Amino acid sequence: MPPVISIQGLTKTYASGFAALKGVDLDIRRGEIFALLGPNGAGKTTLISIVCGIVTASSGTVSADGHDVVRDYRAARTKIGLVPQELTTDAFESVWATVSFSRGLFGKPRNDAFLEKLLRDLSLWDKRKSRILELSGGMKRRVMIAKALSHEPEILFLDEPTAGVDVELRRDMWNLVLGLRDRGVTIILTTHYIEEAEEMADRVGVISKGELIVVEEKSELMKKLGRKQLTLNLAEPLVAVPPELADWAVTLAADGNELRYAFDANAERTGVPSLLRRMTDLGIGFKDLHTSQSSLEDIFVGLVSQKKDAA
Amino acid sequence: MGFNRRGVWAIYRFELARFGRTFLTSLITPAITTSLYFIVFGAAIGSRMTEIGGVPYGAFIVPGLMLLSMLTESISNASFGIYMPKWSGTIYELLSAPLSPFETVLAYVGAAATKSVLIAMVILATAHLFIDIDIVHPFWMVALLLLFAITFCLFGFVIGIWAKSFEQLQVIPLLIVTPLTFLGGVFYSIDMLPGIWRTVTLFNPVVYLISGFRWSFYGTGDVAIELSLAMTFGFLALCLAAVWLIFRTGYKLKA
Ligand SMILES: Nc1ncnc2c1ncn2[C@@H]1O[C@H](COP(=O)(O)OP(=O)(O)OP(=O)(O)O)[C@@H](O)[C@H]1O
Ligand SMILES: [Mg+2]
Question: In A, which residues are within 8 Å of B9 by CB distance?
Fold first, then answer.
């Protein structure tokens, strides 16, 4: 199946001379949830803005559902919905008016039943007559989502959807996203929160300083780069790491009650059996032990520093 | 979808709704100002100057009064309409919508021009309460009214895109267009000016607009109607070129 979004050789140099994107190639598969992960200023918003027609690319091409976003912008944009990073709304409009406006703007015929369902799904129905300036920040974000979905897009961009959002709204939002995915909508979201990508995405792309460092299935990424951590709950607390354990990069935690050892689960020798043997020899007892998968956060930090070392 | 008429309609309605929220003020204000002009000028000056070129003084000033309000209103409404989304950030939606530059301009300029024409009509109706007005070329009167409204709304649209602050939005209507209109023969015929001033005045483009508009009312103007039309179309062409350039280069709309 051809990709729903195809980005080739995309660069963007702003008028200030700053190169925000340095040659990005990326294909988004139809129906997937794709997380674009990167620190502040990595170029996430720039990338999204080019696809949506808000920023002009310096070079490269983008197509959405087979339509070039510049040459065939009308067909491309009809398919795309965008929830931008910033909360920007027409403060004096009512919720209903602003959502109807968005639907019309994208050329769709009036459909009050659809908009009613949309507002109900987003718990905005009771507020439909309120002016937007009377809403809380979380509700404004829901309004932005309703606007983006009002024209029934097949591709939805969510630029940092959970910034400044409470637990409940976050959960609602994820349910909504999963529901959309079930209906075949492709979702591309950006985030700083690794747990979010980990929890939601099918695939993850990591972007840093205008370059896509890696694009992987989430599970592959975790497996490939997954480092594990062994935690030992000591019988007696230690004041310092004994010099005999210097061969293993172990650290103490929890006031000396825990000994931690990070290792590569895929390596030929993990170093775990020998560490345990050495500890038995030294008479350091432990009550319990467990290992944990490192989070995307660890992976990400690792990737960025690898990239730096290579440079 | 060859033409996004629903998108154009959505913007047009949105803009008119924005006017609607200030509907009374925006229509009562020109009615009151016009009445004031008639009371002040009609009573104070009109008693000394009864006729200009065969037209009673009260009637003489009506076309100019209409333009005085309409030109500034056109510029400020159209510039505000496009400046607001730029300022608040909601422009993202406009830029990401399947809307061609032509459709965008049509919607914004169309809405602003509608309001300008309404205001001009209110002034005409108010003036009619004070004096009799017989319009010699009603077709041309309406045609010129529309032409001026569209031209100056386009001009306002360009200013709205160019402006970086609310202050800049006000500068051109207040500091350039209003003085030029006052000096462009709203209250007098430029034939009444002493020689040198008459020549200087001919460099004021608004003279041609007022003269042409007055011609449509009373059949006579300070300059030939062809010249008035040529000047109007020239300015319209300039504004269209500026708008074309804006969308061509993304100037101040897209990074
Ligand atoms: N209009 C602009 N002019 C000049 N530089 C810009 C402009 N917009 C963004 N930049 C720069 O481009 C870089 C990428 O910005 P972008 O907004 O794409 O980052 P981001 O990954 O979305 O960051 P964040 O996570 O903070 O939202 C930043 O260094 C930013 O300062
Ligand atoms: Mg961003």
Answer: 104
